[in-house]
Amino acid sequence: MVYQPATIEETVAATPGPASWRGALTHLGSVVTRNRKALVGMILLAIFTLMAIFAPLIAPYDPNGANFLPSQAASPSHLLGTTSDGKDIFSQLVWGAQQSLLVAVLAGLFATVISVLIGVAAAYIGGTMDYTLGVFTDVFLVLPALPLMIVIASYFKGSGATVIIFVIVITSWSYGARQMRAQALTLRNREFLESARVRGERTPYIIVFELLPTMISLIMAIFLGAAVYAVLTAAALQFIGLGNPEEMSWGTMLYFAENNEALNVGTPLWAIAPGLCIALLGAAFALLNYAFDEMGNPALRARGRKRGRHVSHS
Amino acid sequence: MEARGLTKHFRVGGLFSRRYLHAVDDVDLTIYPREIVALVGESGSGKSTVARLLAKVYQPTRGEILYRGQPVTSLRGRQTRDYRTRVQMVFQDPYSSLNPVYPAAHGLLRALTLHRRLRGGKRRKEAEQVLGSVGLQPADEFLRKYPYELSGGQRQRYGFAQALACGPEVILADEPVSMLDVSIRIGILNLMDDLRRREGLSFLYITHDIASARYIADRIMVMYAGQVVETGPVEDVLAHPRHPYTQLLLSAVPDPLAPEIDESQIDLGEPPRVVDPGEGCRFRWRCPHRISECDSVSPRLRIVRPDHQIACHVDIPDWVQPHVQARGVDEPDPGVLPADATFSEP
Amino acid sequence: MDVTSPILEVKNLTVEYSAETNSVLAVDRVSLQLGRHEFLGLVGESGCGKSTLCFALAQLLSPPADVIDGEVVFNGRNLIHMRDTALRHIRWRELSVVMQSAMNALNPVLNIGAQMTDAMQAHERISKKMARARGGELLRMVGIDPIHLDSFPHQLSGGMRQRAMVAMALVFTPELIIMDEPTSALDVVAQRSLMAQIKALQREFGFAVIFVTHDMSLVGRFSDRLAIMYAGQIVEQAATRDLFRDPKHPYSRGLLQAFPSIYGPKQKLQGIPGRPPDLRFPPGGCRFHPRCPAVMDICRKEEPGEYAPGGDDLVRCFLYAREEVEHSKLHTVR
Q: In what order do the strands lie in the sheet with B62-67?
């Protein structure tokens, strides 16, 4: 009934969308190579990943071995100096990448999975289910995240990454679920879903193979957003001493640096280096997120290239 | 295929609302083999809901659907799929009826897997054959294309291809041409006509465009506010419309051949009230022939000419264009316009 | 101001959508003339550039679209070189635009009355009370009960919203209104009544109209002249009556045969085979040649000019190239 001509603008702006799950990966590849933000984010992420994987090869010393003179300044043998109890800071930094990255990826992943499940279930099943899940999501959305995290984490004090991931997932999934629900709702009445139903597909097939692939950019954005949140939150919890001090991470490094007044005893790098790494890892995820946003929304791209209305005459 | 007393109400408002939108009320309909039935009405008349009820996308609130005499409302699982093999649907919006992340033939291939148990090379061969039969050639090329590479008309042909791949006897076509460009609409209508002739299919052709209904349909049903107000053989209904709503619709069709009418008294085309409408004729607020009975009694379909029924309390004489006659404007009989008034190839 | 001069004169207007790979000429050397009080129907299929042309006429294009050549002379002034402030002065007061989707053009959080008074007060010193009274008057003129001054856009039906849009366009009784498919989202009955209303208002106020549509039969009844657009170019221009009686360009002919009628004998129609071209890769020669039933060799190689086989009409088709010669001879003889 509504006649809707495709404007030329749309045709020009339309970049080939991702094609199914496999296609989405190649799409990812092309995004990364074409977009500078994505490239920087990807390089940062790659550096940290390599650092985490090859920590035993890169780190010159045992991160927990108090084998050196305490509180040394940076030198060729100790690139970032030593801690107040004589451990090599650079080795700690390299090993710390493992946990920080793991927490970011796992917490991001779990939060995304829960968001997708709850958001899509609410939107697709609808009715009472939508209402119930909506209330459930809202309750989590308004939970005061920071106090809750501190309460839970201090209850399980010292039990390490698992609890931190748990705490982060609990406090972060609800926002994504709202977004998923909203987008799934706009897609719910798209005719290709009805078309699949009339074709005789079962509901699980429709959700997994018809609905979710069309939302891949949102899912990606939720994951990256949750990962940024996880990096920063994990660091914060560990910094206030709620992590496991036995496990090496950038947050616990900050915690010890702070407790030993690193800035006052001539080893500022003890605090600066892990802080910088946290910031860079967070930035890496955030840059990828922006890049995806731009790819998905041509309007953001156009603004970068051309400004305002100007009339050229030929 | 047959439907009796088909009714669908949607709840409007929140979870505890008691207000109901009467999308479809008490619709009877029959589609015979090799027949094209046109279901005509404005947006909000419930015509698309009828198609979705017949396609089992929605469950009816009341009423019964029979397919070759068998009730289909209560079918479950495997039986539903068997029903879908026989009764297929084509959607209105070619821009949203194909999943953008898959090649356009995805639905067609899935349909072949689900309903014909075909795989691999056999499936591919069959798919090419179906694509060819809806005019998408070369078929191997169209197997690979993505929706964004296609025009609206081509996308709509994929919709027909998916439906055909199931091996149906009836296709419910929900406004298949309304979003297409004028120059390619006829192509899709001709395709439907072709499929009827070649494959013996039946169609329920849903549209708001009476002219296109006349072009391909045998019978026509006019819907207003969820109810059928007039039904009969298409030529008879168009030449002798008896329901005031049908007359209004006909007078509004943009057509350079249409008789000149007085523009000042035109119905504004406001949509009907369908939330808890209550008893009484639903067209009465817009009706120029309203009598007191219309306020209290819902009219039922009654026969006025052979096979031709209307739901109206008033006996309106043949083809009165109320505005025209009231003003005494010369009114050419639409049936006897000179033949050269249509546009023929020079 | 000269009353006999055309209100709008478009010369060689060309609009380009710049893109990284293939730039698109959405409007390609379009020339038009619109007389005062004239109702011009601009007909074309989706993607033919008709909406872009409208936007270009009202100087509402935004990047990546840009006018790269040509003139739009409105009331003797070229709008292309005009500054934004001057343009703002002309828009609404002398030239207004009615968009296809009223829902997008109206502000959803303001009621109709507030939007109308805002518009009036932005361009004119007028008291709120006066503005509101005038708003009510305008609504009545387009067939809406003035009670709806207090209604919000979502409370109105589609037809009423479009009427409200027309009322807003009439606030300053402009001399030209450009309407971009204002009726295409409406049902037939609402569509016909809105068309009739526009025509009646035009008779009353005497503004000129450019009415863009994809549906030739819709404007057939109301327009004085028709311009048929295909792939960014105007392929035929003629008086509506002449064009319906004797369409010259094969595309116009095809369009006229593309829709069935509820009158006259039933006959098999063919439509136009193929699809409109992708403007990123327009076909060489005449842009219609891949779909043309009367295609000749020359159509594939060269681009046709504009020929005037019957006086005022313009046709962009080689079929009339020869007649053009005879036609110009005729002129010299006369």
A: B19-30, B2-12, B62-67, B70-71
Decide if A128 touches C, using CB distance below 8 A.
no
From chain C, the residues in CB contact with A7 under 8 A are: 47, 51-52
For A227, the enclosing helix (H) or strand (E) is helix A216-239
Q: Which among A3, A6, A308 has CB closest to C184?
A: A3
Which residue in B250, B255, B265, B333 has the most chain C C-beta atoms within 10 A of its own C-beta, making it the best mutation to test that interface?
Answer: B255
Q: Count residue pairs from A and B with Cβ separation < 8 A.
A: 89
Pairwise CA distance, residues C248 & C227, whole Å: 12
Cis check: omega of the bond before C64, within 30 degrees of 0: yes
Separation between Cα atoms, residue B227 and residue B312, nearest integer Å: 12
> In the block, which residue shows the tokens 């039935």?
B37
Q: Within an 8 Å CB–CB cutoff, is residue B75 touching chain C?
A: no
The pair of structure tokens assigned to B223 is 């819907």
Q: Whole-angstrom Cα distance, residue B136 to residue B157?
A: 7
Please write the tens of the pLDDT for every residue from C24-61: 888 888 888 888 888 999 998 887 888 888 888 888 87
Q: By the 8 A CB rule, do B102 and B68 touch? A: no
DSSP code per residue over B243-285 = SHHHHHHHHHS--TTSPP--STT----PPPP-BS--SS-TTGG
What ipTM did this prediction achieve?
A: 0.78
Strand ranges of the sheet holding B302-305, from the earlier edge strand across to the other edge: B87-90, B170-174, B202-207, B36-40, B219-224, B227-233, B308-310, B302-305
CB contact under 8 A, C63 and A309: yes
* List of chain C residues whose C-beta atoms are within 8 Å of the C-beta of residue A308: 63
Report CA C15 to chain centroid distance, whole Å: 16
Partner residue facing B55 (CB), from A23, A128, A198: A198
Our CA-based measurement puts residue C41 at a distance from the nearest CA of chain B, in whole angstroms, of 14
Q: Does A309 touch chain C (CB under 8 A)?
A: yes
pTM above 0.90, yes or no: no
Kindly report, residue by residue over C113-161, the tens digit of the pLDDT.
888 888 888 777 788 888 888 888 888 888 888 888 888 887 777 778 8
C-alpha to C-alpha distance for A233 and A200, rounded to whole angstroms: 45
Q: How far is the alpha carbon of C289 from chain A, nearest alpha carbon, in Å?
A: 21
Instruction: Give residue C16's identity as a one-letter amino acid code.
Output: E
Burial class (CB in 10 A: 0-12, 13-18, 19+), B294: buried
Helical H segments across C153-308, by residue range: 158-169, 188-205, 216-220, 240-245, 250-256, 297-301
Where on the phi/psi map is residue B17: left (φ > 0), alpha (ψ -120 to 50), or beta?
beta
